[in-house]
Amino acid sequence: MSDALLELDGVTSGYMGDIDVLRNVSLSIRQGHISGLIGLNGAGKSTLFKTIYGFLKPKSGAIRLHGQDISGREPHTLIDDGLWYIPQESSLFPYLTVEENLLLPLQGRRARYGDVMAARLEDTLQKFPVLREKLRAQAGDLSGGQQKSLEFAKAYMVQPRVCLIDEPSIGLAPKVAMEVFQWIKAFAASGMGILLVDHNVRRVVSMSDHIYVLSLGEITASGAPEDFQGDLHAQVKEWLGITF
Ligand SMILES: Nc1ncnc2c1ncn2[C@@H]1O[C@H](COP(=O)(O)OP(=O)(O)OP(=O)(O)O)[C@@H](O)[C@H]1O
């Protein structure tokens, strides 16, 4: 039996009719591991996230979370089963305060979180101190870096078993981006399984336990980071099928 938390087995998916954006994609995410996904613009990385998280229903193949097939399940039910998604675009409610944004996912799940909500909030504010002084501020009034902190703090509040993270460093100053990568490492160190996409390929390769290369909707290479060291620039071109 596989020890993967999340597993894709031959998944084919797309937005309309007979146009397949993802073709026969198989990958797995293990506890405490970062799986890095790299690919050119338009390769299908965001489509892969949307398919796993239930926004798109696979045409074929299976997506298993803790061994259960979740293909096509509603996103909110996946949260209950320990899956969380930090999308490239904001998932915050801009007119709610920082505190309301943090508590919202837990308030809808009182049976699970009712007893731990206050302690979880305090723990989260210790991990993300910048948010403590902004608790009563509207999320939409925060800077870009603070909003990204809030996205990760929200995930920390829920403490999922698997976290999908799409382009977390895009548009951030280098210092803030470094902080974001530290949070991701801390998430994995706490036992979370991570699927990470970022345009900073060198960073993704250096911090992942396993790499997948997605090219035109197909996984064209995969392996341990050691297999991906050396002349990264030339290798990336080869994996992605770029010839000049
Ligand atoms: N809502 C949609 N409807 C139809 N086609 C879409 C939709 N979203 C994306 N696509 C198409 O699916 C393909 C893959 O796009 P996707 O956004 O998944 O790629 P990506 O690897 O995440 O690229 P990027 O790095 O630019 O975000 C592209 O050809 C894109 O035009």
By secondary-structure content and strand pairing, the structural class works out as: alpha/beta
Q: What is the domain tally?
A: 2
Low-confidence segments: none
**Name of the level-1 CATH class of the largest domain:** Alpha Beta
Can you tell me the CATH superfamily of the largest domain?
P-loop containing nucleotide triphosphate hydrolases
Please work out how many helical segments DSSP would assign.
9
* Overall strand count: 10
The secondary-structure element order is EEEHEEHEHHHHEHEHEEH
Characterize the structure shown.
One of its GO terms (biological process) is L-amino acid transport. Residues 6-241 form the ABC transporter domain. It holds the Pfam family ABC_tran. Belongs to the ABC transporter superfamily. This protein is an alpha/beta fold and 244 residues long. It has two domains: 1-82 and 162-244, 3-Layer(aba) Sandwich (Rossmann fold), CATH 3.40.50; 92-159, no CATH class. Helices cover 35% and strands 24% of the residues. The protein has nine helices and ten strands. It has helices spanning 45-52, 75-80, 98-107, 110-113, 117-127, 144-158, 174-189, 201-207, 232-239; strands at 4-13, 22-30, 34-38, 60-65, 68-69, 83-86, 162-166, 193-197, 210-215, 218-223. It has a six-stranded mixed beta sheet, with helices on both faces. Strands 2-1-4-5 form a four-stranded antiparallel beta sheet, with helices on one face. α3 (98-107) runs parallel beside α6 (144-158), α5 packs across α6 (144-158) and α6 runs parallel beside α7 (174-189). It is globular and about 50 Å long. The mean pLDDT is 90. Adenosine-5'-triphosphate binds at residues 15, 21, 39, 41-47.
